[in-house]
Fold this sequence. Notes:
two-stranded antiparallel sheet; Aspartate Aminotransferase, domain 2; Aspartate Aminotransferase, domain 1; single chain; 2 domains; alpha/beta; globular
Amino acid sequence: MNTVPEMRPEMRSLLDELGTSIIDIVRDTDDRIALPPGSEAVLAGLSESLPESGSGARQTLDSLLELCEQAGGNTSGPRCFHFVIGGSTPAAHIADLIATAHDAVTYTWVLSPVGVHMELQAIDWLKELFGLPAGWAGVMVTGATMSNFVCLAAARQWWGEQHGVDVSETGLVGLPQMPVLTSGFVHASTLRVLALQGIGRSNVRRFSADEFGRLDVNAYRHALEALDGQPAVVVVNAGEVNGGEFDPVEEMIDIAREHNCWVHVDGAFGLFARISPRTADLAPGVERADSVTVDGHKWLNVPYDTGYAFTRDHALMAKAFRYSADYLPSEDDPHPTPGAIGPESSRRGRSFATWATLKAYGREGQRDIVEHCLDIAQCFAARVGESATLELMNEPRLNIVAFRYNPGGMDDDTLDELNRRLGDAVIADGRFLVGTSKLGGRTVFRPAFSNWRTRDEDVLEFAAVVEELGERLLRQQS
Ligand SMILES: Cc1ncc(COP(=O)(O)O)c(C=O)c1O
């Protein structure tokens, strides 16, 4: 039987039959468990070779819906504090479903005039929201990793031009190593990007004053002085992923400005500090940088995968990502082509969700989400402070609260091992999705609160669950 003629009627009946299941998934986000226990066992027997004739769309989709219930992470839900993961606002989530319904493609204007318009509009709004100069260029990408990729590609292009070379045309051959200076707060994605761009991870110079990675300002200043006017790239970290701390943003930029530097700010989640008066002092002066990374799927609460790259120079982005072929829009095409200043050619309609959430809730709504999460972080930190067995490991000013289980009478190494095992136990339990990491060399839980859905009762229960599972682990050990 030829499958194709059946697909048109099938599409209609599947939408009739399954449309409400999709709506229920979004509606029940608060109630689903963070990570269903036993998902590995559920998925274990599923690998198979490609079916010759398929099992049919209805059966396939039913089984996908069931598998998501048994083995899907509820990362959009109120009890996911892993990595730095936002929820989706109602407007953003539904707008994203609309983008998917249209299968919108936003490489260039002709494929989705509305999608491209929304991207340009949303980029302008984001510059207003974060206090970035109106003349900067911006592009939507898959997240902060790719945003760092775009920004550092522009930085590398600038650096090449300082040496009289267009590196996107002729490469790095014959050039010295590009100096990259930062603190110990630098995110792994920046190192990955520099590896991909031929700069090399280990070429990054990290000036750390302590085991937390805080900037050694004098060493940084002296290193720039020693470059004696040679062009260099400085990466400022506005929001460190383990403890939520910031480089001294303004001071770092001021010093860089005395030298021949491109200044990049990675503010994947930390840039949101700028939109509340309670935290704006954490990231002053970012508008004097040359490029800025910020994520959408973290604290803007738009669905995955969305990030934004901003640079002061559209032309550098266009050169770095130059992409021409006879069938593509030319550089002097009067219509915009967002895909020409970023790494992706084909790209989905990410702009729908960002545009919708900014339009629906405005600046005030974004500030409310940020301040809601700041309050949640303080509520959780207070609960940790009152606990006999939980120990606060940072002074949370933003949305990350580092803590560990510490029943007393154990040395640091023993506590590290206990907390590592407790981290595994929390994941296996599934009521909360949260990760452990190292902060100042010690193993900690580092819940990040970035989701409008999270309530005080969620974080209070989280503390109780860690205490409960910690006690159980100790009993099992003795
Ligand atoms: C400071 C920073 N930069 C970059 C990233 C990478 O972000 P993404 O996962 O969106 O690529 C993260 C992720 O947590 C981050 O915290």
